[in-house]
Design goal:
single chain, mainly beta, 11 strands
């Protein structure tokens, strides 16, 4: 059964760093493009970053220079390294497999000022 399990969230102060990971069970979709989205309270879910099967990446403008997405195909994981976090980065972060529009349950990231 396919599962996306996010881990590593929590509470940090502004300016600190945090890494969150998405573990994909099952190998069928292990090399598909993966992405991170986030949803802040009272706001729509928004795209954060994505990485293709060949390692090409794209991040939204608001996190450029601060967030990096990477993947480990051997471990079937996708990691979002978040540096210099800001209070506006607070939200629930979701992992997604784009090809089949499959989502993880999300993980809370809270940045205090």
């Amino acid at each position: 059964q396919l599962q996306l399990v996010e881990s590593g969230g929590g509470l940090v102060q502004a300016g600190e760093s945090m890494s969150i990971s998405c573990a994909v069970s099952g190998t069928i979709f292990s090399r598909n493009t993966k992405a991170w989205y986030r949803q802040a309270p009272g706001r729509q879910r928004e795209f954060v970053a994505q990485i293709t099967s060949t390692g090409s990446t794209n991040v939204t403008d608001s996190v450029k220079g601060r967030f990096t997405i990477s993947r480990d195909n051997a471990k079937n994981t996708v990691t979002l390294q978040m540096n210099n976090l800001k209070p506006e980065d607070t939200g629930v972060y979701y992992c997604r497999i784009l090809a089949i529009d499959y989502w993880g349950k999300g993980i809370q990231v809270t940045v205090s000022s």
